[in-house]
Design brief:
single chain, alpha+beta, 7-stranded antiparallel β-sheet, two-stranded antiparallel sheet, 9 strands, 32% helix, globular
C-alpha cells in the first residue's frame, strides 16, 4: 500500500486527488483516538473498533495514542507535514530503491527492491524483544543522533524526530506497524525493520 486509503476491498482513494475525503477521515480519527485502550475498553475491544476505519490509519491512531499517553514532546517527535510527505517519500525511494525496474512508488515490501549497490552494514535476526535488537543496531549506525531523522512507515505515514523518542514510541506499539524505515535527512543511511523476515538491517549509499 502506498498513497491510497483502502475503504473496502477494491476501493481506493488517492491521497493526492481526494484531499477532502482524506481530511474527513483524518478529522474523524483525531476524535476517535481520544479513546484509549487503557481507558474504557480492553485492548481486544480497541483493536476491534479500529476495523471501522481504513486500515492504513490504524498505525497512525496507535502512534497518536502513544504520544498522548506517554506525553512525548511534540517538538522532539511529530508527524511530518502532509504537504511535504511526498517530497520525503520520493527522495527516500529514489535514494535506496531500484527505481529503474520498480518505477511505481510503494512502501510495502520495499526491502525486496533495494538497489544492488547499497552497502549492507548490519543485519540482525530478532530472537528477543525487537526493541533490544533495534537499540543494538542503532548503536552500530554511525550518525550524529543529536540530529533528527525520519521514520517512514510502510503504510505511508512519515514522522520526524530524535531517535530516543522514536524508540520510545515504537516500544509501545502492539503489532499494528509492519515494516518501517529510519532514514537520515541526507538520505545516505537507512535502518529497516522487516516484520515478515523478523530482522533489522542497516544500509548505506
Amino acid at each position: 500500500m502506498i498513497f491510497s486509503d483502502v475503504i473496502s476491498p477494491g476501493t481506493k482513494l488517492s491521497l493526492k486527488t481526494n484531499y477532502k475525503e482524506r481530511m474527513f477521515w483524518e478529522n474523524k480519527l483525531l476524535t476517535y483516538v481520544k479513546i484509549s485502550p487503557k481507558e474504557g475498553c480492553a485492548l481486544e475491544q480497541w483493536r476491534e473498533q479500529l476495523k471501522k476505519y481504513p486500515t492504513r490509519y490504524w498505525s497512525r491512531i496507535e502512534i497518536e495514542e502513544i504520544v498522548k499517553e506517554n506525553k512525548i514532546d511534540r517538538n522532539r517527535f511529530y508527524e511530518y507535514s502532509k504537504n511535504k510527505y511526498y517530497q520525503v517519500i520520493k527522495r527516500f525511494y529514489y535514494s535506496f530503491v531500484d527505481y529503474k525496474n520498480h518505477s511505481h512508488i510503494r512502501l510495502d515490501y520495499l526491502w525486496l527492491h533495494f538497489r544492488k549497490d547499497l552497502k549492507l552494514l548490519h543485519r540482525e535476526y530478532i530472537s528477543d524483544d525487537y526493541i533490544i535488537s533495534l537499540n543494538r543496531s542503532i548503536e552500530l549506525l554511525q550518525y550524529n543522533w543529536e540530529r533528527k531523522v525520519f521514520l517512514i512507515l510502510s503504510d505511508g505515514w512519515v514522522y520526524e524526530g530524535f531517535i530516543d523518542e522514536i524508540i520510545s514510541v515504537l516500544a509501545e506499539t502492539d503489532g499494528i506497524i509492519e515494516d518501517f524505515y529510519i532514514v537520515t535527512p541526507e538520505y545516505n543511511k537507512l535502518l529497516v525493520y522487516c516484520n515478515d523476515g523478523d530482522c533489522i538491517s542497516i544500509y548505506e549509499k
